[in-house]
Amino acid sequence: MRRGLIAALAALMLAQPAMAQHGDEGDIAYRRGLAYKSSGDGALAAHWLGVAASRGMPEAMFMLATMLLEGDGVARDEAKARTWLEAAAELDYPEAWQQLGMMEPDPQRAAQYMRRAAHALTHRSEAKR
């Protein structure tokens, strides 16, 4: 639970500049999801994060996946979580690559995911300069 909360807060802090590229509807849905999550209403948070995720927001995809992995406001569903993580990873979202690496039983493949996470994070930090 604590790991998920830390990941969600980190995603929130890093998501602000990226939100504009997903349009107003995605941005509004994402912010609603965050508000419901912080107020403790996981079901509504998952709904709105799902709306934002379906509009291509990797931040929302990652948070929704985290909720699905932990059963936070939704039924625990590792397969659905993996689907959202893979979608976010395809958009080069570092946290998604990292989570996929942590879930991967094959050490070589896990290491590959972690390298991709590091690479994506490097590009994110370079873009902020």
From TrEMBL:
<protein>
    <submittedName>
        <fullName>Sel1 repeat family protein</fullName>
    </submittedName>
</protein>
<dbReference type="InterPro" id="IPR050767">
    <property type="entry name" value="Sel1_AlgK"/>
</dbReference>
<dbReference type="Pfam" id="PF08238">
    <property type="entry name" value="Sel1"/>
</dbReference>
<dbReference type="InterPro" id="IPR006597">
    <property type="entry name" value="Sel1-like"/>
</dbReference>
<keyword id="KW-0732">Signal</keyword>
<feature type="signal peptide">
    <location>
        <begin position="1"/>
        <end position="20"/>
    </location>
</feature>
<dbReference type="InterPro" id="IPR011990">
    <property type="entry name" value="TPR-like_helical_dom_sf"/>
</dbReference>
